[in-house]
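job 3f2a | input accepted
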Amino acid sequence: MKHLRAITIGIIIWTIGVSVYNLSFTITIIEDAQQQANMLLFIAVMPLVWFGTKQYYKKDTSTHGYWVGQTFFLTAAALDALITVPVFILPNGGSYYQFFTDLGFWLIGFEFLAIAMLYWYIQLGIKKLKN
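job 3f2a | predicted structure (131 res):
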């Protein structure tokens, strides 16, 4: 596995995801701004991880999608611990515990894994099974 490549792509996914999350507060679609932001992030993560996985596999086709998705998610979780929580959550009365035990956080984590694995099975796994 090309760790540096996966971590770099994970940083890009996280950066765009945080941007989508923060920008969602400027547009009112539903009354609950927090729920709206979480929904938009959940939707945005799908194409972001798909595209990130596609970029990763341009240079390495031997790594299973699970490991790519896990690296993307762990990168995002580390950046959340270092940047998101101290900058956005703590000043608004939240906590690390509250952030990392939120069901939405873990659903998005599962989404990272599922999308990367789905890409691998669709684009690479079938090809490997045929050979």
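job 3f2a | The radius of gyration is 16 Å.
job 3f2a | closed
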